[in-house]
Amino acid sequence: MVQSNELYDSDGSENSDKELQKAFANKLLKPGLNIPIEKEKKRIFVNNVNGLQSKLKDIQTNFKWIERLDLVNKPAALAPELAMQMDEQETSNTNTFNEFKRETNFHRQAQAAVLEGLARLKAMGIPTKRPDDYFAEMAKTDEHMQKVRGALVQKQAETERREKVRKFRQQKKMMKELRKEGLVKKQNEKKEMLDEVKKFRKGVRKDLDFLESNKSKKVKPVGNKMDQLSKKSQLKRRYKDSKFGFGGKKRGLKTNTRESS
């Protein structure tokens, strides 16, 4: 019995679905046949003048003007150039420049209110400008501002430290380059000196002028002991250098050569 009832229910649902599909295809189905449609409720607007006036009396206050600072005035006058420009724009295309006209009216309204308000405040003897030594009260606590100040000081100190490190590295690099240039220059001078000595030993060069030129190139430090020698000792040293040389092989230097014989 249960199985036969289930088959009957399934066949009935299939038949009802087919009938609904045919009715929908023939446009026989209309809204509200299966699901009732709720009608929209009409809103009733009541202009309760007495209630509005009583509420206005409850919220209305009788403060002085200095507490309210409200102004009712007409917009300020336009400059002649701006007025002509607005007239031309309105005659050419009114719909395009409505927004510009509206913003201009806002500006004129605010300008007129400022001019009238400043005049009233000056008449009442109320200052409208802050003094030079004016300090505004901070909305945040002193502890928070101390933290902010500490963070700024720490950031500034870190920036200064990085700048010092950068300058120190730059100076160190420059000193290294100068030291390298001085070492290369010293090696070149030493090489030139050795070449001249070799030429003198071989007899290619007879004079010792290169020694004087080499001495003149050297910068004498202040307070050097060589500066305190007398001219007599310097002449004596020069004579001995020219006679005996600077060491090395001296045998055969005084023998005759093809040019001397």
UniProtKB/TrEMBL annotation:
<protein>
    <submittedName>
        <fullName>Uncharacterized protein</fullName>
    </submittedName>
</protein>
<keyword id="KW-0690">Ribosome biogenesis</keyword>
<comment type="function">
    <text>Required for the processing of the 27S pre-rRNA.</text>
</comment>
<dbReference type="GO" id="GO:0005730">
    <property type="term" value="C:nucleolus"/>
</dbReference>
<dbReference type="GO" id="GO:0030687">
    <property type="term" value="C:preribosome, large subunit precursor"/>
</dbReference>
<feature type="region of interest" description="Disordered">
    <location>
        <begin position="212"/>
        <end position="261"/>
    </location>
</feature>
<dbReference type="Pfam" id="PF05890">
    <property type="entry name" value="Ebp2"/>
</dbReference>
<keyword id="KW-0175">Coiled coil</keyword>
<keyword id="KW-0539">Nucleus</keyword>
<dbReference type="GO" id="GO:0006364">
    <property type="term" value="P:rRNA processing"/>
</dbReference>
<comment type="similarity">
    <text>Belongs to the EBP2 family.</text>
</comment>
<dbReference type="GO" id="GO:0042273">
    <property type="term" value="P:ribosomal large subunit biogenesis"/>
</dbReference>
<dbReference type="InterPro" id="IPR008610">
    <property type="entry name" value="Ebp2"/>
</dbReference>
<dbReference type="GO" id="GO:0034399">
    <property type="term" value="C:nuclear periphery"/>
</dbReference>
